Amino acid sequence: KLQHLIGDVNHQGVVLKASGYPYADIADLTGEPEKGRDAPFLLVLDHVQDPQNLGSLLRSADAAGVSGVVIPSDRAVNVTPAAVRASAGAAEHVRVAMVNNISQAMLKLKDAGYWFAGLEALPEAKPYSETDLTGSIGIVVGSEGAGLGRLVRETCDYLIKIPMSGEVSSLNAGVAGALALFEVRRQRLYGKPGKQSPARKESQK
Length: 205
Known about the structure:
- The protein is an alpha/beta fold.
- 32% of the residues lie in helices and 15% in strands.
- The protein has helices at residues 2-6, 51-64, 81-86, 102-111, 150-155, 173-190, 198-203; strands at residues 41-45, 68-72, 96-99, 115-119, 126-127, 137-141, 158-161.
- The protein has a seven-stranded parallel sheet with strand order 3-2-1-6-4-7-5, with helices on both faces.
- Helix 2 (51-64) packs parallel to helix 6.
- The relative contact order is 0.16.
- The model is unreliable at 195-205 (pLDDT under 50).
């Protein structure tokens, strides 16, 4: 009977009844950071479709110290069992807010003090390592095929890109998002653009 219910899944004879994923409210992501903690840091996903990419991004978000993730309720993957598995448990530790309209949610978060950097491989985008990402920031990642939607792109305060030197012009959404998240983390640990890291200074003494 179990095999009939769940199909070709390696269940090992174990069943667990669980409630639906507990999404956060967008207001939960706008609070002041605890004393001694970094400025708030969000990941905004503009219609990511693949549960593997969502899970991978949630895992990277947790590792990079993201305060919360914002996803749309329509035309995008939500936190499904497949996404939870791909997150390797990180979905249980990262707050995810589901909203009806990404650009409207961004405007509300701007009122709370956030700035938004959209990840796009466009000529006008600035390399992320040359952009100050140390304040209350939201990294915005577009869908796998279309990238950022027009309204979302226009709502971003600036556009950033990943410097690339190969023949391939783009990266998987999960990989690109992870690189941007860890650039934020790097800047918070070692200083914003234009500053040498402590390790580099030490080596020059």
